[in-house]
Amino acid sequence: MKIRIICYSEVGKTLVNSKSKFQGFLCTNFGGDLESNSAGDMIKFPLGSLIVSDFESKIARVDKFYTIDVNLDDKDDIKQSCDFREELIYFCKQNMEFESVILVSDDISKKIGQLIFPLIQDIESLGRKFLAEFFYTQKGTNWLEQERSLSDNAKSQIKERHKEEISSKKELRGFVLADSTLMFIDFRHISDIIMSSEHHFSVKELIGRIRGASDISSLQDQIKTTHEQFFQQFFEKKFEEKWTYIGKIRNAVAHMRYLHIKDYEKTLEIKEELLSIFNAATRELSSLEPQEELINRIINFDSTEKKVESTSEQENDTAIKKPTDIIYDLIISFDEYAESRGWEFLGLTQFLEYAENETKFERFRVKELISLLILSGRIEIEKKENYFNDMGTSAIKILN
Q1: 344 or 69, which is more confident?
Q2: CA geometry: angle at 119 spanning 113 and 123, to 5°?
Q3: Final residue in a domain of this structure, among 68, 98, 128
């Protein structure tokens, strides 16, 4: 492992006034021996070797620059390497009284970062896996729209990143078709969703919620964050503190900042603690039934909101229907159209495009409503053979 340090000071403000004198101080302090060869002077010491170089300064107030190039034995205990780096920097700054000591390159931090990175991946994977299993079983595919701990700006950024990624990877059929929205929330959002009691509502949405609520208790249920609804009983404040610490270490690794072996040891310790927390929370959540009543409440709110905002008689007639009924009626009419055209089946993809054009629902909302129709036994999705696609084509089958 190699590290490179630059030292400099104003003229006359350091104990070092020549390279040979600096070498002597280093040999004495670190138990090294000075060896000369064709490559120059090298100081050998128990953990490795170092070379001191000096350069004339082009800065008026600086006499000389000194560089220290250290080569440490990779086989030695990395803790010893960390301790040597600490002592070398301290010695140059405090004992030699250099004005500035700059760590230019640092293989020690790089190696520690390589040890920490897999731990961070494991930790982040724990959080995303936990939220994915929770959201997609408890709140459905439109979980992002329901989540109150994230601001509208944050949600827009998540959607935009998701959209850009899909656009750049169109050739990856599996990725494009999978619902991967959760991959695009930031690391800090995981903790925000689990721990936040902040509510992000637009004025219009809040007014709509108040109008749509049958009573105060219903309104309180509608505006609760995920933390208040589910997580506060088994995620304590210490979880947030640990997640914040990992976030800082994650940034340090990503940006090649100064790391010590103690950072690795603490990250490993926190990983085990977070694993225990997530496992306990998963056991608790596994006993919950899918929140169909919560989904239905959101659906009923959507209907109420449309009814309040509608002005024409025709719009009010539509607003009275539940969204699931609107989609079901569209399926019936589109099926009749498909039959009149001689189509063998009603393709899911074609219907999603049709429903988007015929309603104000976004595609993820249409998918959610189709899922509810499947749960209620009114339709099912079946696979049909497709000459152009080995995986087949998803088709909608009406059951009653």
Answers
A1: 69
A2: 130
A3: 98
